[in-house]
Amino acid sequence: WSSNNQFLHEEGYLGGKSGYTDPALQTVVSLFSIPLSETGVRHIAITLLQSKDRFKDVENILKYLNKNIYYGGEADANTAWVKERTDMPEIYDKDFVTLLLGGDIMLDRGVKNSVNKNFNGDYSALFEKLGILKKSDIVFANLEGPISDVGKDMRNLYSFRMDPSAVPALKGAGISVVSVANNHVGDWGRDAYTDTLAHLKENEISYIGGGVNASEAENPVIIEKYGIKIGYLGFSDVGPEWIKSTENQAGVLLANNPRFDEIIQNASKQVEYLIVSIHFGEEYQTKHNARQEYLAHKAIDAGAKIVVGHHPHVIEDTEVYKNGFIAYSLGNFIFDQGFSENTMKGMLLEIKLEKNGNMSIKKNILKLNKFFQPDTITGGKEEKIEFN
Questions:
Q1: What are the tens digits of pLDDT across the range 135-173?
Q2: Contact partners, residue 209, CB within 8 Å, separation at least 6
Q3: 96-385 carries CATH number 3.40.50.11260
Q4: What is the rounded distance in angstroms from the CA atom of residue 3 to the CA atom of residue 1?
Q5: pLDDT value for 91
Q6: Cβ neighbour number for residue 33 with a 10 Å cutoff
Q7: Would 151 disulfide with which of 92, 143, 158, 189, CB 3.0-4.6 Å?
Q8: 47 compared with 60, residue with greater pLDDT
Q9: How many Cα neighbours within 13 Å face the side chain of 80?
């Protein structure tokens, strides 16, 4: 179940849930408060069961509301009207799942200053031009640092700690899964790290690459959509070593773990598609290095279908290797590195996973504006990848 709703910030929306299972199809429950006069209101509950044509469903709801409740809308609602006035995706196709995989998100330092100065402290404004996120089934990105208001600054050269008020903005934008395996997650110590995990859990954002102990860090996040099981795992190849997860301590999952292959193999047996995120490589290099290739190939040999990389802060090359696809670095998603054109953009990898084991890929390019806000997306050409 998800709390995401396009009415989330609208006056009159009280709350709701939406979800999907194969037997029940799409199910939505929403509660609204409708003003009837200056002082009177009416509470309305709208429930959809077994929905498979969202446009037609909305059309029917609007017709009912116009007939039974005056709410100021047009009386001739039809499918064309719904399409024109909403940002809903087309009818769900149960034969494939659409994923989005983005780069590094860092909401401290210059980004935080920009949000406070230009958006009145509202982090959700950073995502207002990213409607593509809510049109996708699962959205993943790397969370570059802790989100917390506790901890002790470890005095690294660059030390990040993001405001917890940003977490609902991530959720509201449609981000489903984040990696907490990177070189900045320990910037404010283990207390801030565990607090980050708690904030993510509270806002129903799944995390990979770390956990409250080694067991949680090594187990994949599994999401089932339309009968397709998709798993996510994360590793860091750039530390920090001191905050690695243990049997009794929270921390990250490191790529130098001697059980690297085994962890991936175990995860791949539980799903149809396994995505592995690795924080690796050299900063600001547009070509991957031998170490990245070694780990990415190793991950696919162990059962991963897709490997995505973070850390270089620029887009790197991609590769089809055996039965897998590798994007060595997705670059930046939201970051304050305004010193070059390459660091002010990232790849928003759009992947369609099919039940027959095939996938298609679009290498969309996202560009940030001077406010460090994703501003434009240039759609990539769809590439169909068929594996034997």
A1: 999 999 999 999 999 999 999 999 999 999 999 999 999
A2: 179, 180, 181, 182, 217, 233, 234, 235, 236, 252, 253, 277, 279
A3: no
A4: 7
A5: 47
A6: 12
A7: 189
A8: 47
A9: 1
> For tokens 């006056």, what's the residue?
11
**For the segment 307-317, what is each residue's pLDDT rounded down to a tens digit?**
999 999 999 99
Structure tokens at 318: 């991609």
CA–CA gap between residue 277 and residue 208 (Å, rounded): 9
Specify the amino acid at residue 307.
V
| Residue that is written with structure tokens 């070059």 in the block | 340
> Is this model's pTM higher than 0.90 or not?
no
Q: Where are the domains of the chain?
A: 13-85, 96-385
pLDDT over 50 (residue 290)? yes
- How many Å apart are CA 225 and CA 245, to the nearest integer? 30
Tokens 């050299």, residue located: 282
Given a contact cutoff of 8 angstroms between Cβ atoms, the answer to whether 162 and 291 are in contact is no
> Which residue is it, tokens 């401290």?
108
Query: Residue 83 CA to chain centroid, in angstroms?
Result: 25
Structure tokens at 69: 């409740």
Is the peptide bond preceding residue 240 cis, with omega within 30 degrees of 0?
yes
Instruction: List, in order, residues 6 or more apart from 275 with CB less than 8 Å away.
Output: 99, 101, 140, 230, 231, 232, 233, 304, 305, 306, 307, 308
